[in-house]
Hints:
The protein is mainly alpha-helical. Helices cover 68% and strands 0% of the residues. The chain has helices spanning 4-23, 27-52, 58-88, 104-107, 125-136. The radius of gyration is 24 Å and the shape is elongated. The relative contact order is 0.09.
Amino acid sequence: MHLAYPAVLAVLLFCTGLYGVLARRNAILVLMSVELMLNAVNLNLVAFDVWLRDALHGGQALTLFTIAIAAAEIGIGLAIVLAVYRNRGSSDVDRLRDTAETDVAEALPDEWDADGDTTADQATAPAGKAKKAEATA
C-alpha cells in the first residue's frame, strides 16, 4: 500500500477538524473537531510506522498513548462544558468571553497610595462594590 492514501486521508481529516475548531461556536462541536484532528495524527503515526517497517512499532505505541490522552481530554472537556452550561445556560464559545475577569484598573479604586491601601473615603467602598456587582451582572 502506498503511503499517499492514508496521508491524504489524514490531511482531509485534519483540515476538517481545523475548520470545525475555527468555525464552530458550540463548545461540544469544538471538542469533537479536536478529536478529529487527533485521529488524523493517529492515522499518520500508524501509516508511517507501517511504511518504515519499525520492529518496535513505536508509531503504534505512541498512538495508544495519544488515544489515552484524548480520552482524558474529552472527559475533562465535557465536565468543563457541562459546568459552563449549568452556570450560563449556553455552551456558546463566543459567550464564554463574558466569564473573563475584569481589567485590574477597572476593579480598583481611583486613588491608591504606595502601600496599596486606598486613600479614598471608606464611606464610598460599599458604593464601589455595588457598582462592580452591577457591571459584572
